[in-house]
Amino acid sequence: xxxxxxxxxLFWSTIVSHFQLLSKSVLNWSEISVNLMTIREWIHHLVxxxxxxxxxxxxxxxxxxxxxxHTFEYWIxxxxxxxxxxxxxxxxxxxLVSTAFTTLLPDVDCITRIxxxxxxxxxxxxxxxxxxxxxxxxxxxxxxxxNDTTHTGIEYWAVFDGHGGDNAAxxxxxxLYNAIHKRVEALITKDSVHNHCEKSPKDFCSSDHSDSGxxxxxxxxxxxxxxxxxxxxxxxxxxxxxASLSKIVTEEVLxxxxxLIIESKERGDVSGSTALIALRIVAQNKLIVANxxxxxxxICDSKGSAIPLSFDHKxxxxxxxxxxxxxxxxxxxxxxxxxAGILATSRAMGDYPLKDTNLVIAEPDILTFHLNDxxxxxxxxxxxxxxxxxxxxxxxxxxxxxxxxxxxSNTTTHTAHEVAKCLVLESYKRGSVDNITVILVIxxxxxxxxxxx
Length: 453
Prior knowledge:
Blueprint: H1 2-50, H2 53-104, E1 119-123, E2 127-132, E3 141-148, E4 154-163, H3 167-199, H4 201-205, H5 242-267, E5 272-273, E6 275-281, E7 286-292, E8 296-300, E9 306-308, H6 318-326, E10 331-334, E11 336-339, E12 349-350, H7 352-355, E13 365-370, H8 371-374, E14 378-382, H9 384-387, H10 392-409, H11 415-429, E15 436-442
Antiparallel strand pairs: 1-2, 2-15, 3-4, 4-5, 4-6, 5-12, 6-7, 7-13, 8-9, 8-14, 10-11, 14-15
Helix pairs in contact: 3-5, 10-11
């Protein structure tokens, strides 16, 4: 009986506890319903505020400002592009006026009509250089010619076309040949000591030898380069091969570029420079041409044909575009194709902001030529100011005509300089808006056997 009572009490207490829990749940749902009603009222209130004319006007203004900020960069670039196009058209118009004016006054040198222009030149019997500032606000081209056949057995010509300032071109021009000369001289000296010590180690190694010195800068030679017959039996330069010289040039270009980058970062200088370098190994009569950028060389062979000595490094070239893309960069058309929309050449020395990301490199392309096979008449090395107005074939044809005309006049002994000057002035007349530098090297003074067609 007591057990039955206990069971009854337990059952009743369980029922009561369940009802209590149920009542609490009902109360909680009531509170949730109240909260939902409150949220609905707030939403209705916010919608009513949002639909007011004042609110709509404010939102429209905010959206308009956001749109302006988003398209600001595009507008600025469009304005800059339009300005560049207008400038180019003005320059072309000035060039046409200049050409017409020159035609009316053929006896007046167009140089006299270029205010405050920089002209740099070098005159030799068979090597001539003419450099003109042209329509640029500053002269940024540099050049070098060294005839060092006595000590290293090489001739050296180089053109450096600066951009973003002339600091990079000045730096490279002042250091590159000296660096190459030291390497070549060390190679020759090492080979010479080795050979002589093998032949007579006692006599030679006990002698006192010193460096023979270096011809820096422009060095005059009274003979034409190709007509100056070299002694191919001279064992002093046997170690100087095309492969060894090409390796030296490549390594020194990259080393000078490394030094330039360090110095440019310290000064905050973003300038850069192309480099077109030609070296002739006199004893072997072989030519090595190293190119970084869009300066260009061309040679006229015995038949009067134009043989390219280099090929421009342009961002749109398949090889260059692929390299830039793999480095995480892009090219953009802004008048011409440019790396990251900035630089019109894909290889250069300097340009450290683009060099840090490997978008622009200084690795030179090197081509070699056996001059005995080509039998060249002359060679043209020039900055892109010339090639903006001439193709390779046009430049060779124009230079041939100038050579024959100057030779027939018999008024000057500086034939190469006169022809270089003719090329520069003609490219200026044709509308080139860049600095223009031309090095012309005569290898054979007999032009009677080549066609001028």
